[in-house]
Amino acid sequence: MAEVKKTALDGGVGARGGGGGWTRFVTARPRLTLLVALVLTALAVLVGGGVADRMGSGGWEDPAAESTYATEALERRFPGSQPNLLLLVNAGPEGVDAPAVAAEARKLAERLDAEPGVDGVGSYWSTGSPALRSEDGRQAVIAARIAGEEKDAAAVLDRIAPEYRGAHGPVEVSLGGGLAVRHEMQVIIQEDLLRAELIALPLTLVLLVMVFGSAVAALLPLGVGIVAILGTNAVLRGITEFTDVSVFAQNLTTALGLGLAIDYALFVVRRYREELAAGADTYTAVRTTLRTAGRTVLFSALTVAVSLAAMLVFPQYFLRSFAYAGIAVVLLAATAALTLLPAALVLLGDRVNALDLRRLLRRRRAGREGAGTGEGGDEGAGWARAASLVMRRAPVFAVLTTAGLVLLGLPFLGVKFGTADDRQLPVTASSRVVQDQLRDSFPGDPGGGITVLAEGEATPAQYASYRERIAALDGVARAEGPVTAAGGHAYFTVVPEGETVGAEAQRTVSELRAAPAPFDTSVTGQAAVLVDSKDALAERLPWAAGIVVLVTLLLVFLLTGSVLIPVQAVVLNALSLTAMFGAVVWVFQDGHLAGLLGFTATGDIETTLPVLMFCVAFGLSMDYGVFLLSRIKEEYDATGDHEHSVRFGLRHTGGLITAAAVILAVVMVAIGTSRVTNTKMLGLGVALAVLMDAMVVRSLLVPSVMKLTGRLTWWAPGPLRRFHDRFGISETDPYNHGSTPGVIEVSEELRETASSRSTG
């Protein structure tokens, strides 16, 4: 007999039939386990409360980039060169040059300049710059910079905004600028997240009741999800003490907290109920569940965490934040599913099936079907028949499904990358209204443009010569400056033609950096930040992809012992994402369905979003892939029948995976109701990817490809086979050889198959 492989969930056989050490640990004192969990959850609520107030709404910049260096240097030397707060002064028909209007505007500027934390105040009335005056002469701008870290700057804005917003004598003042946009975005995200939770929780409960029938069983996954979400908020609160965390990460916390916790709890509770139905007592059922489904949950959590951890290689804290949140919520969801859930199951016993809302329906169905046959009365019979159909026409299904997925992904070939701006906000948001007016009515963007920092001693003639040189570059509308300071520091403002961060502006950034100068130059501005961000992503993307692919290959090999299956898993998971990426470009970049979904299409996609969506969706696809492969592998080890094992795997997990995918999609769609475009894109895009993976890839592509590869699917060279025998992961219960419900069902199915063949 082959050596039995052990995992952390194994141990010696214990009392009460309880089995392994982990089983004894989580079931010895179930009430104490749940009480400790309740206390820790309450502490998590206290610690994690208000975590959103400590989060930032930026994080798209590379901290080591040239643009970041230049921005920080300009903030120290020339705070007025980098305004992040704009007061839009509306004078109405009287015009901004009217004496009363000018006097009131100067008073406002003087008050603003005296505010603690506010630097570099300038205005149309002090500089006469045409870029600060609207083309119709009815509006003009007071520009300033609120210095300090993002959270400190937001606190200053909160304090002063009520004093400046609104009517002041003959003028009306509105607030805009980058800081106001980010702050309003943060507030809207928090409001939308609360609404998404209020939508998702009751809908999730209804779906779980439909899946389980039992209201008691349905509440268990929901409880695991809530524990994971609250625990992750506490973890993020601790992380904010050491580094910046994006407020967008809270959306991922809610989505994955509910989605993965429900996935894991569905798998555990479903297996536990199977064991009870097969006649096992409570402790034996829990033991078998932990040693089978429990291992799969542990393995699945590891694969998802690795996919999300790949975002740690990127320098932007926006992406790193999702890694922090994702890893925490995955590990907490798995821990709760493997600790709290078994304890609850021990206390519930067969009462896990209490309040069965589908009992009447089942009685009617049983009455109609009578005794039935083995497969006919099985709730997974439809999946088994579908798998048989797919495998009979495997080449057709494999080719058509692959071609369809590739076709859906073709729009992504036309992707254009940009940067997030105020148009992420709804058109009614106050800071968005201000930015729209600046964009439409002013000759230049007071908060945009490209800034060139000059460091080193130079003569006025050298400054003038450099200004003429950069003004003559293609794509430059005009160049202004220099503004000088002591110590050999100066800056030039370059206004690009066309969009502030368009392709022409990005080319101008590269040309400015290549232009010769008699001093050291550094280029910043929105276009420069975008260029640097794209470069940082391109440099680190191969590393992130390599980590995901290599670790996935290793983990799937440890699960299956096959060389081919890990390669299939990576390729098929990637195919499952094509529809998501194609839809992102077709809908959000090109603007199809913009009116229906309520967003403004800008003609590009924020640079970091595809990376984030890939890591999240790939991890979730692996989650479902592990559930399916583990049951196929378990059955193949028991029978050695390849096609039967594929059919068995779909029969026992197809409904489970589909239900989990639908529930997760509901949560992601609730997130996708956000009024912020990036959050909407993340939620709806991942929802589409999850549904495509569960309903197309797992149902059609996996069985057809595994049929085509046949028994070669399970091949591995001798050294790797021995490595797997020693270190691999198995879902087979080592203490219940040949007597699990699955093996009993296999024998019945094989006898039925053999009988039908002989009579045929």
Topology:
Elements: H1 21-27, H2 30-48, H3 66-77, E1 85-90, H4 99-113, E2 118-123, H5 124-127, E3 139-146, H6 150-164, E4 166-168, E5 171-176, H7 178-212, H8 215-239, H9 249-277, H10 282-291, H11 293-309, H12 317-348, H13 359-369, H14 381-392, H15 394-409, E6 417-418, H16 430-441, E7 450-455, H17 460-471, E8 476-485, E9 489-496, H18 503-514, E10 520-525, H19 526-560, H20 564-576, H21 578-589, H22 594-597, E11 605-606, H23 609-639, H24 642-671, H25 677-709, H26 718-727, H27 741-759
Parallel strand pairs: 6-11
Antiparallel strand pairs: 1-3, 1-5, 2-3, 4-5, 7-9, 7-10, 8-9
Summarize the structure.
The chain is of the alpha+beta class and 760 residues long. It has helices at 21-27, 30-48, 66-77, 99-113, 124-127, 150-164, 178-212, 215-239, 249-277, 282-291, 293-309, 317-348, 359-369, 381-392, 394-409, 430-441, 460-471, 503-514, 526-560, 564-576, 578-589, 594-597, 609-639, 642-671, 677-709, 718-727, 741-759; strands spanning 85-90, 118-123, 139-146, 166-168, 171-176, 417-418, 450-455, 476-485, 489-496, 520-525, 605-606.
